[in-house]
Write a structure and sequence with these properties.
The complex is a heterodimer of chains A (264) and B (305).
Chain A lengths: L12 E10 L2 E11 L4 E6 L5 H8 L7 E7 L5 E3 L5 H9 L2 E4 L3 H4 L6 H11 L5 H14 L16 H13 L5 E5 L7 H18 L2 E6 L2 H7 L2 E6 L2 E7 H6 L4 H8 L5
Parallel strand pairs in A: 3-8, 3-9, 6-7, 7-8
Antiparallel strand pairs in A: 1-2, 1-4, 4-5, 9-10
Helix pairs in contact in A: 4-5, 4-6, 5-6
Chain B lengths: L8 H6 L7 H16 L5 E2 L13 H10 L5 E6 L6 H14 L2 E2 L8 E5 L12 E5 L13 H9 L4 H14 L10 E3 L3 E3 L9 H4 L5 E6 L4 E5 L5 E3 L26 E5 L6 E5 L2 H9 L10 H9 L1
Parallel strand pairs in B: 2-3, 2-4, 4-5, 5-8
Antiparallel strand pairs in B: 1-9, 6-7, 6-10, 8-9, 11-12
Helix pairs in contact in B: 2-3
The chains are: A alpha/beta (264), B alpha/beta (305).
Amino acid sequence: MEPLDNNRDLPLLRASQTTKYYGARIGCKDVSFEVYPGEVLAIVGESGSGKSTLLNCLSTRLAPTTGTVEYRGRDGVMRNLYEMSEAERRTLMRTDWGYVHQHPSDGLRMSVSAGANVGERLMAVGNRHYANIRSTATDWLERVEIDCDRIDDQPRAFSGGMRQRLQIARNLVTAPRLVFMDEPTGGLDVSVQARLLDLLRSLVADLGLAVIIVTHDLAVARLLSHRTLVMRHGNVIEHGLTDQVLDDPQQSYTQLLVSSILQP
Amino acid sequence: MSTSPKNTQSFNEHYNFAYLDEQTKRMIRRAILKGIAIPGYQVPFASREMPMPYGWGTGGVQLTAAVIGDKDILKVIDQGSDDTTNAVALRDFFKQTTGVSTTTSTKEATLIQTRHRIPEAPLNGDQVLIYQVPIPEPLRFLEPRETETRKMHALEEYGLMHVKLYEDIAHFGHISTTYAYPVMVNSRYVMDPSPIPKFDNPKMHQMPALQLFGAGREKRIYAIPPYTDVVSLDFEDHPFTPQEFSEPCALCAAENVYLDEVILDDKGSRMFVCSDSDYCEGRRAQGHKGHMAADPVHSNELSEA
């Protein structure tokens, strides 16, 4: 479950000069950073700033034009993700990693029950004992505050907030070490957002997860993340501890972003 | 058993032997060979328009047309029976286009085209069993993207198949899939055995006969070579179990065979009879008698035969 102690001080994921061009247009350019085990990194910026492109490049969903993305496996070896075979990448995706989509319907199987949604990863890694799969699924539903009697309901019958929590449970069931999140609180109303953030924060802390979270909502970054990258026009314009970036923004664009938060 | 008339002149003037042209048969045979070389793998092939609608067995017909020779003895089964529409029509089609002998006897046949059943009598190494397949992809209803299912087969990512079985147990307390029950072939490919009842699944395991599967609309051929492992998927705590019947066949008293329920009237009376009509007739000819075998309609039939 926990990464080996001697790996705790070494970066889990490293992006070096990661660049993605869409033809002549820039998706993201020369992005370099490291994520350490248990660390939450927020990528913030306005719509079209390259946040999602970067996340896709990091999570092997989109090959970068140039630059590398490396990941340290459980064996402690750092490997270039795009030099791994597709089979290895897919195995990584469903065991060591999680990916929480903005829209739960992209990340869930809407036509199978909540229990099967949570159990799918277990079955994918070879678990063939029904009762064990079901009890693990029940545990996870409890952890994300979904009533156990909803285990056989399809996610279609769930509210938006429940679906998002189910998606999180589905990703965390194999005890991943790194979770990618793309606007996980987008489209939820404010009170549901607050509960979800609270839940995420405690899960991340309990499990010692590393998280890379993309958001345009600075409050999310403030609540969850240790460090923040600010992106604009595909470039990282500011990078530092979240409190530092948000309390004392250096770049004029970041200052604008911070000052644009509505104060109730 | 009926023997075909040798007079197939009118067809021979217009059509090649077994309807398809020789190049098409070669193409299908190449797909068959590839399928045999990779047990359970779905080989795409250029399925032809046949003179019958999709869903009537165009895949099986093309396989049969590709492998049939003039010495073959053909049997066609539809739901276990030799005398239902599909079986009669397809048997007649090959009689007219090839002039080969046909039979209803499982033992005598060298080539058996089937829909929805495997004969009860064990098959031998000189026989070929050809299945008509509606939907060859076992993962289809869980994963609609063909690109994705192909990748899953290539990388042996079969967790999803168990999601379906999980759903069965979650909703019904047991694996409620009764036909087209997914199997693992040769410890490598998960395969849809076509809509045969799961009762027939164990017969596929280590079968001496070659098994070929053809899906005409979906343009796929796959195969199980003789003596290949075929294992039905299940959970450790919910093992695979074939259907069981509480009573024997009402006509021939056979046990451990697959039975069809026949409704007799609107008062709720019913009988269970062998779905494999040839097997049932054979047993009755040997003198086995079920509790409803004295039915005069059936005794007439028997005396005629």
